[in-house]
Structure formats: structure tokens, C-alpha cells
Design goal:
The complex is a heterodimer of chains A (383) and B (347). Chain A is mainly alpha-helical and 383 residues long. In chain A, 68% of the residues lie in helices and 2% in strands. In chain A, a hairpin with a 2-residue loop joins strand 1 and strand 2. In chain A, helix 5 packs antiparallel against helix 6 and helix 6 packs across helix 11. Chain B has 347 residues and is an all-alpha fold. Chain B is built from 15 helices and no strands. In chain B, helix 2 packs across helix 10 and helix 3 crosses helix 9. Chain B starts with a helix and ends in an 8-residue tail after the last helix. Classes of the chains: A mainly alpha (383), B mainly alpha (347). At the A-B interface, helix 1, helix 2, helix 7, helix 12 and helix 14 of A face helix 5, helix 8, helix 10 and helix 13 of B.
Chain lengths: 383, 347
């Protein structure tokens, strides 16, 4: 049976023989299982998408109106530019958080084909730990005021949470995933087992109630923008996300390890054949991927609090982002985060008020549209 | 493999006779639940063993059946409150589930393996948020007081036989499909999608059809469940229960159809009887508090899952098959000659 056998990424290519594998690769790159992308099918998929996009854009820019029977919670961009800008900022800042978490997920998947189902649990654990550390540093368990929290009181707990998250990721990889590399389904189920255990133990340790982490006091302000008040802390979150993204970009593009990882994403066999210690590279990837989940966890704990269920929610967020953006592509994670973040912000604001709870369906439609138009995501390659 | 059919027949006869000597609690609560969970899990095992599709959306279809019946039958509380009779509601719910499975199947059919798993998981969780947020159909509070047909009302043993009959129907259908031209094409798609496509088979359509077929049985289990339970809420189709279904299938053995019910039996049994295993009470301290406590059931299941994935990826039914081949090496040699994979697993 092939299901749990080696799916053969590292070894199968040699077994299959060069001729066969070249033919198969050529077929794979032609599109999923030989379906031809002729002009009509491309237009058929993109035409309605473009029309719908224009219609939605027109709605948001000019038509949406609070005085009408439709009653959206934000007015149209022309009538209420402030509300539009606030919604846009909401989308951008949330996209920042999405990117930090999802880029870790996609990094691990891109190199190792491991779907880390424990990604959400690692996110939540880091959030809980960061909260505990922050409370210890401030010396107070509840009702912490923003003024009591210095910048260091936020950064240090975040780093502690992320370091523990990274350590858990590496231990899990070395202990449970190292020896079955290439059996992607088995690995997904193993990480799922880890997720179930950790989630249950966190419930026992931290209880079922939501706790939050405080943003550093220096960033908790409101400022006026086109007549609307906006929280500086959300911009701080975006700044942290941009910083993390910049470091990730530098690491992947300007260091030797990053070059090896990018090479490994494209052709793992060649990297092995060049005598590079792939196991070390794998461990480093898991370290960085889980570290990013950890940083995201602390950001998420400050943004919306840490509670049971957040693990599943953020596993889902990561999945939606990377499926839309293209699995394994960091660029795709950025694009997917922007797309998803924008939709999450705009759907409740511009749907008629009686129907705002349908915004989850908009997510579904977005995902379906992206998959129909580009089955491998925006920046994905054929598997 | 004649031993397989013999064993299934024996277990089947035992299950038919079970209400004669089992307690009402064991039959009406535990075994009915095992059969229903096994039925949903069998739809997943069918997809993964025959089509190579490990789906996480089957539990969503199962839940949608419950919500559909609830919306149609209930006369008060949340939802549409249509107040229809139970039997027509069942038919409509099954149609809805099959249609939903077709939609999810056709959206996911072009992806394979791990991509398919992730995509179906995404759909499953979106379904959870849909029923949580869209108060027209349910809302997070869920629906209660959904009556089964009068035939099953207050007759747990009849419902048990209903679940048994549906399980038998599913088992026989899935086994029949295995040998049908459609089943053979599906196995071809599982092993060599590219070769099948170049032979002229419409690979995404075969996958979609298999998914739709499995969706019907998941929906059937969902209807039974709502009759048995009388209530449903979005939490019961959240990410936890969704993963539980895959865990059940993996524990039982995801490559053997019988493993679905075996896994459900182990899962439910562990949930109910874990504390009563003699000797466990003497283990004190951290292990007692964090692993063996009743409310730490998930930890036990997670550990069991890890153990199975590390030691025997084909689960409990795989262990049984190995025991059988150890006793009768000839039978297993014959089997291996048929199922050997000349490509070494390369797809």
C-alpha cells in the first residue's frame, strides 16, 4: 500500500528511473493530471471573478450606505473616507499577524512537506507563556494597566514564548518526525497527536478562561485619522510583523542557511547529493517556523487574548492563508495574508448589517474562487 | 481472504444477538454510538483506502445532516423551525448531504494527499463557523429537542438495530464497490493518477463521485446521530471532533474497512472505561492527575495516536491482519503477491 509507504520524494525519483521521472515531471508541470488550460477555461474562470471584484469595489467605494435600507456598518469610501481607511488599516494590521504565523507554517511545509498540525498549539502555548512571564515581570496577576508595561516587558516575554515554541518544534521534529521524513500523511497525523496532547494539557494547566497580554504602554494610544480614532497598538503589531518579515527575508536571501533552504525547497535530492547536512537544515527550519508561530502567539495574546480554541482557529488561519497563497511559498504567505486580512476586515464592515454574520461565507467563497482559478494557490507550484 | 469475511460475519451475528444479553446502557448508549461513529469513519476509510483521499470533511457532512434534520423537524428554539415530519426530513437531509459532498468533492478533487487533507480540514472548520455564526440555521447555542420518528422514540434497541442495519449496508456497499469497475478505476486513481488520466479516465470526476458516495453514508450516520442524541451544536462539528474522526480511523486502521468500527469501539471504550482498568488507580501524582483523569481523555487518545503512528501505522486492524498472517503464512504470501506495488510508492 502506498498510503503510509514512503511517498518517495527523496528516494522514489531514483527508483523510478530518469526517463520515467522526466516524463512524469513534464506531465505534472502541465497542470493537474493533464487537464488542459485552454483560453476558454481561463477566461471562464477569470471573467466572473473580475466582474465580481469590480462590483464589490464599486459597492465599497460608492454605493454602501448607512442611511439606505441596506445599512452597512461602514459608509462608502466616498461618503466616509475615515471609516474606509480604518477598515483598510484593520485589514493590513491583521494581515501582519497572519503573515507571521502563516510564514512559519509555509516555511516548514515548503522544505519538508510536513503539514505541522501542531502549529496552532505551539502558537497558543507561546501566548500563554508570554502572558505568565509578563505577569511575573510586572509583578501583578490581573488588571495590569498599559502604563505598567514597558517595551521590554513585552519584548522579553515574547522572546521567551517564541524560544520555548521553537524548542518544542525542534524536539518534535528530531524525536517524532526525523525518521519518517517523506511520509507526509504519517507526519501530519503524528503532529496532530502532539497537538491533541498539548491542547489538553494546556487546558489543564491554564484553564478555560481567556487571558490577555498587555501591549507596551508606550504604544497604547489613539490618534485621529480623517475624523476616526485609531489604536497605535495595532500599528505596533504591524511594525513587529514587518520586522519579523524583514528578518525572515534576510535569513532566506542573505545567509548560507537560507540559500540551502531555498535550494532544498526546489530540489532536495540535489542538496543532499552536494553533501549538505540536511538534518541540521531541517532542524533549523523547524526552529524558525515554530519561532515564528511563537512570536505570532504572543502578538495574538496581546491582540485578542489566549483561550482554548485559539489553537484551532490559528491553524485554520494559517491553512487558509497558505492554501490561497500557495503552499511552501513565503511570498505566497504574504499575498495570502493580505488577501485574507482584507476580506476579514471588509466583509463585516460592508455587508448589510443584518447579514454581517455571513462574513464567514465570504471567506469560503474567496477560498473557492482562488482554488478554481489557481488550484495551487497564487504563488504555488504544481505538487 | 476467507478469514476476513468469516470474522466479519461472526462479529455481525454477535452484534445482532447482543441486545439479548447486553445491558441497556451498553447496547443503547455505547454500542449504538460505536456503530454510528464507525459508520462515519467507514466513509473516511473507504475514501482513503480505495481513493487515497484522507478527508477531514466527512465529519462536516455528518454534522450538516444533523443540522438539516434539526432545522426541518424542530418546532421551537433556534433555526428554521419548519416542523416537518421526521421521515421526509431524513430524505431531504440525505439529499442535502450528498449535494454538499458533491460540492466539497468537486472543489477538492484536483488536489491530492496532504493538500486534500488540508483543504477538507479548511472546509470542515468553515462549516463550524458557518453554523456558529449564521443564526438563521443554528448559532453557537445549537438546537435541542429534536424528536426521532415515533418508531425510534424511546426505543433505544430499535435505534441500535437501525444503526446496525445502516452499518451493514455501508459495509456491503463499500465492499461491493471495491470489486466494481468504478472501484477498480478508483484504486487506479489512488495508485497512479497520471497513468489513469493518460488512459482516458476523468480523474477529478472519479474522485468527486467517490466523495459524494461517501458523503451519503456520512449523512446517514448524521441522521441516526440526531435521532439518538436529540440535539446538536456547532461545537460538536468543531476542529476537535473533526480530528477525532480521523483519529478513530487511524486507530482502527485506515487501510481496512473493518478498522472503522474497530477504531470507534476502541475510542468509545477508552472514553467510558478508561478509569475502570484495574491497577491504574495505584499510579499517583502527576500521571494520575494529568493523564489518567477522566477529563484528560484527549491526552490518552493523543498518546494512543502517537503510539500507533510510531509502532503500527496501519492501526488495530493492521495488527490483526499481521497476527493472522503469522498464524497462516501462506494466506499472507498470496495476498502480498497481489498488492505489491511495483513503483515503490512513487506517484
Amino acid at each position: 500500500m502506498t498510503l503510509f509507504g514512503a511517498t518517495g520524494r527523496p528516494y522514489g525519483r531514483f527508483q523510478g528511473g530518469i526517463t520515467v521521472s522526466v516524463v512524469q515531471d513534464a506531465q505534472l508541470h502541465e497542470g493537474a493530471f493533464g487537464e488542459r488550460r485552454n483560453l476558454r477555461s481561463v477566461v471562464g474562470a477569470v471573467g466572473p471573478v473580475r466582474l465580481t471584484t469590480i462590483a464589490i469595489g464599486l459597492w465599497i467605494v460608492a454605493l454602501a450606505d448607512r442611511s439606505w435600507t441596506t445599512e452597512t456598518s461602514a459608509g462608502s469610501a466616498i461618503a466616509e473616507p475615515g471609516e474606509f481607511l480604518v477598515t483598510l488599516l484593520d485589514g493590513l494590521t491583521f494581515a501582519g499577524l497572519l503573515f507571521v504565523v502563516a510564514s512559519g507554517f509555509t516555511l516548514i511545509f515548503g522544505l519538508m512537506r510536513t503539514v505541522n498540525m501542531a502549529h496552532g498549539v505551539i502558537f497558543l502555548l507561546s501566548g500563554y507563556l508570554a502572558i505568565e512571564v509578563q505577569q511575573a515581570m510586572v509583578g501583578q496577576e490581573r488588571n495590569i494597566e498599559p502604563e505598567q508595561v514597558s517595551l521590554f516587558d513585552w519584548i522579553f516575554p515574547t522572546l521567551v514564548g517564541a524560544a520555548v515554541a521553537a524548542a518544542i518544534g525542534v524536539v518534535m521534529q528530531q524525536l517524532l518526525l526525523r525518521w519518517n521524513q517523506g511520509e507526509d500523511l504519517r507526519q501530519a497525523i503524528i503532529t496532530m497527536g502532539v497537538a491533541v496532547i498539548l491542547a489538553d494539557q494546556m487546558l489543564a494547566q491554564f484553564g478555560g478562561l481567556a487571558t490577555t497580554m498587555e501591549w507596551p504602554g508606550a504604544t497604547v494610544h489613539f490618534f485621529e485619522i480623517l475624523g476616526e480614532r485609531y489604536a497605535t497598538s495595532r500599528l505596533f503589531m504591524l511594525a513587529v510583523a514587518l520586522g519579523a518579515g524583514a528578518l525572515l527575508w534576510l535569513w532566506l536571501n542573505r545567509t548560507r542557511m537560507g540559500i540551502v533552504i531555498r535550494a532544498g525547497v526546489d530540489d532536495q535530492d540535489m542538496v543532499r547529493a552536494l553533501g549538505i547536512n540536511v538534518n541540521l537544515v531541517f532542524a533549523a527550519t523547524f526552529f524558525v517556523g515554530s519561532f515564528l508561530a511563537g512570536v505570532g502567539g504572543a502578538m495574538g495574546a496581546s491582540f485578542s487574548g489566549a483561550a482554548p480554541g485559539a489553537d484551532g482557529q490559528w491553524l485554520l488561519n494559517s491553512l487558509i492563508v497558505v492554501i490561497m497563497g500557495g503552499l511552501g511559498s513565503v511570498k505566497g504567505a504574504a499575498a495570502g495574508s493580505l488577501l485574507y486580512g482584507t476580506v476579514v476586515a471588509f466583509a463585516p464592515a460592508y455587508l448589510p448589517r443584518d447579514y454581517t454574520f455571513y462574513s464567514v461565507i465570504v471567506t469560503f467563497v474567496l477560498l473557492a474562487v482562488v482554488l478554481v482559478a489557481r488550484p495551487h494557490g497564487l504563488f504555488g507550484k504544481a505538487s | 481472504m476467507r478469514a476476513r469475511e468469516g470474522a466479519v460475519l461472526l462479529v455481525g451475528l454477535f452484534l445482532v444477538a447482543l441486545p439479548l444479553f447486553g445491558t441497556d446502557f451498553f447496547v443503547g448508549s455505547i454500542m449504538t454510538r460505536v456503530l454510528m461513529l464507525g459508520l462515519v469513519a467507514s466513509s473516511l476509510v473507504f475514501l482513503s483506502s480505495q481513493g487515497g483521499m484522507v478527508s477531514l470533511a466527512n465529519w462536516l457532512v455528518f454534522g450538516v445532516a444533523g443540522f438539516a434534520v434539526g432545522n426541518m423537524v424542530a418546532t421551537s428554539g433556534r433555526g428554521l423551525k419548519l416542523g416537518w415530519a421526521p421521515w421526509p426530513s431524513m430524505v431531504v437531509a440525505l439529499v442535502i448531504c450528498t449535494a454538499l459532498a458533491w460540492v466539497i468533492g468537486s472543489l477538492s478533487a484536483k488536489t491530492t494527499e496532504i493538500y486534500f487533507l488540508m483543504l477538507t480540514l479548511t472546509f470542515a472548520v468553515i462549516g463550524f463557523f458557518f453554523f456558529g455564526q449564521v443564526t438563521t440555521f443554528s448559532g453557537f447555542g445549537g438546537m435541542t429537542g429534536i424528536d426521532p420518528p415515533a418508531f425510534f422514540d424511546d426505543h433505544p434497541i430499535r435505534l441500535y438495530y437501525g444503526a446496525l442495519a445502516c452499518s451493514a449496508l455501508a459495509y456491503l456497499s463499500f465492499r461491493a464497490i471495491e470489486r466494481s469497475p468504478f472501484g477498480l478505476a478508483l484504486q487506479g486513481v489512488r495508485d497512479e493518477p497520471i497513468r489513469m488520466a493518460s488512459l482516458g479516465f476523468d480523474v477529478p470526476r472519479l474522485r468527486t463521485f467517490a466523495f459524494t458516495f461517501a458523503g451519503f453514508f456520512a449523512g446517514l450516520a448524521g441522521v441516526l446521530n440526531i435521532w439518538w442524541n436529540g440535539q446538536i451544536d456547532p461545537t460538536s462539528i468543531g476542529i476537535g471532533p473533526t480530528l477525532d474522526l480521523l483519529i478513530i480511523a487511524v486507530i482502527g486502521g485506515i487501510m481496512h474497512l473493518e478498522g472503522a468500527w474497530l477504531g470507534a469501539f476502541i475510542f468509545v471504550g477508552a472514553n467510558v472505561y478508561l478509569r475502570e482498568i484495574p491497577g491504574l488507580g495505584s499510579i499517583g501524582g502527576f500521571v494520575q492527575e494529568r493523564v489518567l483523569a477522566q477529563e484528560r481523555f484527549n491526552t490518552v487518545i493523543g498518546l494512543l495516536l502517537l503510539l500507533i503512528m510510531v509502532a503500527s501505522p496501519d492501526g488495530a486492524s493492521g495488527v490483526l491482519a499481521r497476527i493472522h498472517s503469522a498464524i497462516r503464512p501462506n494466506a499472507s504470501a498470496k495476498r502480498r503477491a497481489i498488492t505489491i506495488d511495483p513503483t515503490g510508492g512513487y506517484k
